[in-house]
Design goal:
Largest sheet: 8 strands, antiparallel
Strand content: 15-25%
Number of helices: 13
Radius of gyration: 28 Å
Oligomer: single chain
Distance between the termini: 62 Å
Order of helices and strands: HHHHHHHEEHEEEHEEEEHHEEEHEEEEHE
Shape: elongated
Structural class: alpha+beta
Strand order of the largest sheet: 10-11-12-16-15-14-13-17
Helix content: 25-40%
Length: about 500
Amino acid sequence: MELHEHLYDLGVRRGDAVFDDADVLRGALEGSFADVSTAAERGLLVDAVRSGVFGFLVDRLVAGVPVDEAVGDAGDRLARVPGGDPAAARWACAALAYAVGRADDADVRRHPRPGAAPGAGPGAGPEPHLAPDDTRERMPAVPALAPTSIPVPVPAPVPLEGREDVVSHAGSRAERGGARRRWPVVAAAVLVLALVAGVVAAVVLGGDEEPAPTGGGVTTPSASPSETETETIDPDGTDPAAVNARYSGLAEAVVPDDVTCTTAGRARARGEKLTCELPTGTLELVTYPSAAALEAAREERVEHDIGTVYEATTSGTLMAFEREDDAGAPVRAAVYWDDAVAQQSATLTGPRGTDLDDLVAEVRARVPSVAYPTGPSAPGLVDFLGGWLDVEKCLRIETAVDLELEESFCDPTGPVEVFVGRFESEEALEAYRALTLAVAKDSERPLRTWEARRGKDDGALYEYTTAAGRPVRYWDLPGCACYAEATLTRGDADKLATWWRRGPGVEGD
């Protein structure tokens, strides 16, 4: 696997924006690409971005200039330094053009790599020792370093992918007095889907059948009052019909009928990127060359930070998040989901200030392959809550603690409100338990254990009082890394304990 192919995979996993910033690109190259590239090659690639030559190259290619001509012009600009190597500079430009889908493999291999051994063929370079999936690691941003060549003044490049700054904040719900919780917003929406299916069979007596269309297109019948017509769908097209047909594994209709997508990278048999502008935000669709590539991209995108919603099924994964500023206003929101069978993913990202609820409504309208969760879904968590709560009366919300896989708000009958959740590991649950224990000690309330009447594993059982004077009862179950916190809005701790004892748990010492 050649270096330019590694660069292409880097773009698939981290997005083409990795090629917009020279320092970010340097961090990626110095991190996991050191074994498949030389220092000279890495320096040329970084210089092409830092000097603006890469932006000049992309502008030329977008304008329709032939690849050879654009690479030659950009390479000449990059080599305009004392001792510059035009051939090596053209290779660097061709490799970057390939990385963002603007050149083919042959366009790169006709230029010898700077690290190629004497007599080696075009495109030859150091023997790769890096497995393709190793590039999935997140490369840390590094301090700005001086370029290895003198930058050539050229017009500033236009970023390939605009990115808003993300303002994230950490916090702990142990700060019970003034801690802000995202309460569920009840939105009434009525969606009427009119599905009209027309099956038209045209039989012409005494006539010859019309030959089937050629070219590999998919044909769909459509009927008018007077005649039967045949619509051919371009299998590589970017119109709604073509995109919905190609990405049917992700959703019933991944884009609306009035949206046209553009290619974010030249479509190849091994992968594709599309960008579609929806009213609610930008939808990125990706087809991966392999299951391993999808898994690597998923690891890059899916996180379990504060403010996320996560759902995993046997066929795919969904993750949504909302980042807020210190005042609680939304800064950035996105919804990601994928399908392992189709080896595709979709990411809907809203502009700055978009509320996650708006994106969720759009995704649900697309009928995704992984349904957006509405309540507790993990079997272990559902079983843990049984006897205390009806999970049908719980609403999934964004997580409030790091490393939490899911969280829901439950509103049972009476003045009791319950937050329930599940962590990714017992260690993460124990860390959260420690925070709750500290609050319980300050409240000087009983610290107990509990066990299920069915004889299952026991867990912690704590009580504490909020700054507003409301009693809270916390209990957990390490076996499923689950917990629940019940707050009584009216009444004292004894009344809350009476409610808890109606469930399947028995208080310990």
